[in-house]
Automatic annotation (TrEMBL):
Family matches, as Pfam families: Ank_2
Keyword set, alphabetical order: ANK repeat, Repeat
ANK repeats: 330-362
Residue stretches spanning the membrane: none
Domain of life: Eukaryota
Protein name: Uncharacterized protein
Length: 561
């Protein structure tokens, strides 16, 4: 006999199981039966052997169905092993498996082989075959070791991780086939792995089924998340009903994810309270059906009830956490995360339960800095209430980030005038931290692009307060671009609408205009021909601002208009 080749001896286990299954099956058949038509084999086994080796699986089904093939004959033909490695339509696979396991005698004879084939299919990511096998057979997992092996292979399969829908199909098939054995299993690894898998796949009904086994809900899965973490990340309303159940079954709210997020960080990212609008009270008309009005009212009331229910649930979750100010690896607290994700209602809940508002992230930005950048936060009343809560929890209105920006800086950059006025009322220091360039380049410059009238009124009111004028500056600072007054910047940048508003609003800019007399001489010709200030207004402006030394071109142009 010729010696075995070195290549065959060095073949890895996975090559034997997956890559060279056909070759191995041929060798096994040859070793067991040098002649596939050996007269020692039953006639049915010979037919099955020939049909399967020829790839004629329709004939295999017919032979099992019509011929008198014993379970031992099926076993001797290595039919299951060949079927697992073949490319066959899954409907045909199910038909063949149903015929094979149609009797209790077949089940008893083939069970051990079936378990081995099932594990090999899982090893080779042959999940479609495994699904067909599980859905057409019964009671294959008498051995808990085999069940645990399949479960672990499901959890580690990269193919299933990349295809969650296939993963759910495999999970459902396994649960349908062996749910009682899973529940009765004395190996906690089965339940612990499956409950993590079910949570990852958002199969929360299966999670509830597995809770009767008392699994460990605080283990972290391959992504560093616990079952509670997964539940908080659940995108639908099942979170609302299942959170108390999971907490009652031992889920720990203090466990952090692998990335360092607490349960509150995840809640701030994924759970928002959808506040409903007030019920619509539309007048009766031919175009408005009263039934539609009633329907709208019912829907609004339902949304309001759902929002209140979720608010109470989140309040309970916050109350169960000992430290509301834990920071992640970027320095974000749950409060800062809520601000960054526009989760205003959750921010309010955190503040009401004692969370601090003076903690800053790695960029030295507090909650107020984040709010200043949110142009969508335009509800004046909600803004006032939230800022008041932040200030009561230690927020500093004059703190700066690593780039030197104060909260006021950021409100001007984002044109958040509602928050700007509110911060001024709360004691922010505009003279110390305000850069006029932001108004000229970002705020007043918007006039040339047709800003909203309400926004323009806000700008004018702020100008009238004198909050954008830098008074009593040193002469040696006049050349500093960032410290220049709004008037100087308006002239230098030829921002004509801005300069007009500055003058019309009586901003204290007389000294700047005198200092810029030479500049105005060169620019006012282009500037003033756009202005429309009548004689009375010009006289008022001259008296209030004492523009004695302003270039005469300005006053002459104003008088003519």
């Amino acid at each position: 006999m010729a010696p075995l080749s070195l290549g065959l001896l060095q073949t890895t286990d996975r090559d034997v199981i997956c890559g060279r299954r056909d070759h191995v099956m041929d060798n096994l058949t040859q070793v067991q039966h040098d002649d596939p038509h050996d007269s020692s084999l039953p006639e049915g086994a010979v037919l099955l052997n020939s049909a399967s080796e020829a790839g004629n699986w329709h004939l295999v089904r017919d032979v099992i169905s019509d011929a008198d093939v014993s379970p031992s004959g099926i076993r001797q033909s290595f039919l299951l092993q060949k079927l697992e490695s073949a490319t066959v339509d899954h409907h045909l696979v199910r038909d063949i498996l149903k015929e094979i396991f149609s009797s209790e005698a077949s089940v008893r004879t083939m069970k051990s082989i079936a378990q081995d084939v099932l594990i090999k299919a899982a090893h080779c990511d042959n999940w479609e075959f495994l699904i067909d096998f599980l859905l057409t057979t019964e009671s294959l997992f008498d051995d808990e070791t085999s069940l645990l092996s399949v479960v672990r292979l499901m959890a580690s399969s990269q193919m299933l991780q990349a295809n969650p829908f296939l993963h759910m199909d495999v999970f459902s098939a396994l649960w349908k086939h062996a749910n009682q054995k899973i529940i009765d299993s004395k190996d906690n690894g089965v339940q612990n792995t499956l409950v993590q898998m079910a949570a990852e796949l958002n199969m929360w009904s299966r999670v509830c089924d597995l809770l009767v086994t008392k699994p460990d809900l605080n283990l972290l899965d391959r992504e560093g998340l616990s079952v509670l973490h997964r539940l908080v990340m659940c995108p639908d309303s099942r979170f609302d009903s299942l959170l108390p159940v999971v907490l009652e079954n031992g889920a720990d709210v203090h466990i952090k994810t692998k990335k360092g997020d607490t349960i509150l960080h995840l809640t701030a990212k994924h759970q928002k309270i959808t506040t409903s609008l007030p019920p619509l009270h539309l007048p009766d008309s031919k175009d408005q059906d009263k039934r539609e009005q009633a329907k709208t009212k019912i829907l609004e009331e339902y949304r309001s009830q759902c929002a209140e229910s979720k608010r109470q649930l989140l309040a309970k979750l916050i109350s169960s956490c000992q430290n509301l100010d834990d920071q992640d690896d970027l320095g974000n607290t749950a409060m800062i995360v809520a601000a960054k994700t526009d989760n205003w209602e959750f921010m309010k809940l955190l503040l009401e339960h004692g969370a601090r508002a003076d903690i800053v992230d790695l960029y030295q930005r507090s909650v107020l800095h984040i709010l200043a950048t949110k142009q969508t936060f335009t509800d004046a009343l909600a803004c006032r209430n939230l800022v008041a809560l932040c200030l009561s929890r230690g927020a500093e209105v004059n703190s700066r980030d690593v780039y030197g920006n104060s909260v006021l800086h950021l409100t001007v950059q984002s044109r958040h005038w509602i928050l700007f006025e509110l911060l001024i009322d709360c004691g922010a220091e505009p003279g110390h931290i305000f850069l006029p360039r932001y108004f000229v380049s970002s705020g007043l410059h918007s006039v040339t692009h047709g800003c909203e009238s309400a926004e323009l009124d806000t700008l004018i009111s702020l100008l009238e307060l004198g909050l954008v004028s830098r008074q009593n500056h040193d002469e040696d600072e006049d050349d500093d671009e960032d410290l220049a007054s709004p008037t100087r910047l308006a002239v230098e940048t030829k921002n004509i609408p801005a300069l007009k508003i500055l003058i019309e609003c009586d901003v204290s800019c007389n000294s700047e205009l005198r200092a810029l007399n030479a500049d105005i001489k060169h620019t006012c010709t282009d500037t003033l021909n756009i202005f429309s200030i009548n004689t009375k207004e010009a006289a008022r402006t001259q008296q209030s601002l004492r523009l004695d030394n302003v270039h005469p071109l300005f006053l002459s142009q104003a008088s003519r208009n």
